[in-house]
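We emphasize that the prediction below concerns an isolated chain of 554 residues; any contacts that depend on oligomerization or on bound cofactors are therefore not represented. The input was used exactly as deposited, without trimming of termini.
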Amino acid sequence: MTPFNKTWMRLVILVFIGSSLVACSGLPDHLTRRYENIPQQLKQHEEKVAALEAVYKAQQQSKAWAFAKPYADKEKWEAHFETAHKKLIDANTHFENTLKPRYERNEQEETQDFNHELEAFDKLLFQSVKSARFPSERETFLIKAKANANIYFVTANTHLDNISQLQLALFERGIQTSTDYPHKGNDVSKRLDQMDAYVNAAKKDFSSLEKQYLNHKNNKVTDYSILGDAKIAIDKNFKEIKDYESITSKKFDELYTSYTRILTDQKIDYFVIIGRASWCEGEYCGSGRESSYPAKKVDAKVFEYFDSYKNDLIATMRGGWSSSFTLQIPKSHWDTLKINKRDRMNREFDYADYWVQKTYTKSYHKYIDIVDDKQITTKWIEVKETDFWNQFDNLGMSILTKPYGYYKEDTLDKAEPVGMAMVAPLTTKNGSAGGSNQYGEWRTNSQGGSFWHYYGMYSFMNSLAGGNRAYSDRSWRHYSTHNNSSPYYGENKEYGTYGSTTYNNGRYSRSEHARRHPGNLRKPSSDSFSRGKTSSIRNAGGSTRGRGAAGGGK
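Result of the prediction step, given as a token string:
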């Protein structure tokens, strides 16, 4: 083939490929098919609306029309056909002015807009038929209301009795709740006021229904549209009130539940995965093999080294006459990995590259959950690394607290000393400390000092606090001035991971955290440590590397 013919052939191929790409880049087929069906849809809906209107006009000539006519005149039923025709006109305009131009442009990037506009068209058709059906459906509704007036009244009356019982039950519950927790009195009143509003609406609807029912019963002029609509409204009111009573009662139940989560231990495990490519240089060696070793658990120092390692390889093996194995990292770090450099390697291969393929961490917490007066001690629970570091400073502290008398949304999610939020406000009467709640009370010791005493079922709370001792009036006063939008570590920073009293409690001095960070036990003061700055590997998160091998076989 001559150079000219070759050039010509390339141009033909390029034009063919280009036209194929254009053909595949327009609007999706399923949308264009919907569009192309629109003329038929418009015709079908016009016929449907016309048929419904014809049935309506025929009904006007029947004897039964005498019952429906007053309602048709009052509610302007014929206007619904005008609305139906207008919706069809709007649909046709939408088709011509909006859908058609976009269809003709056939641009793939307009797919989402085209789909939304087709949905808008379908909605107009639906509204058109819905409007045209209203007169006949309304007439059926009224005939049914007349035929079932007795049943409607009995049902509505039963609903009203049940509504009154629900209202009374919630009212009594609310009064008791306000008595038990006066600080929630305003909130309880608002919730009861909402119930009253629902009940008053139901009573108003029942009054309308009852009036028309009595007219019906006494053969007086009856408005069945009012009777029927009131029945629907009462059914809806009854459901809303049942739901509201259930939701509000459950809300009040929250006030009678106490919950605390204490961080009792924490650890983060570090892992390194080493990749390896192996091959030989012989003529029939093939392309070699790439694999990875199982993840190796390492300590924080070794992890930090590998996580920040920047070179392509950590070791190489070279065969031939002068075979060698060369490390590019400290031998102590290689030995820590405890891997066999030839593990599962083809015996014919005598070349290999080794690199850091991936580093990652797993973070764990242990908790004691106190629900009311019951303790639940958890095993290790894996947590997100961000959550681990967010709570790292809070060993031995409550990281979630919801005392009695508070809703779930009131839960304190900033760390604070265990049980401090459960201490009653301190009052003074005749020079003596006072104040109590469901958890305990303030008492005075032999030296005249005040301390918080937990009642028997909550006496274990002192043993869970870092200091393993009762709270004094001084410590409570300092806590009470704290803004709970941030953690509270005590007046002298004595609580938490770096607290001066935390490791006085054997629970924490024997923890896995203490074993891994013995320095915290030796120097547990705020002067020795800076909270939130424990290690450069904080939030390292690990990484995945691409192979950086120098060789690769033939």
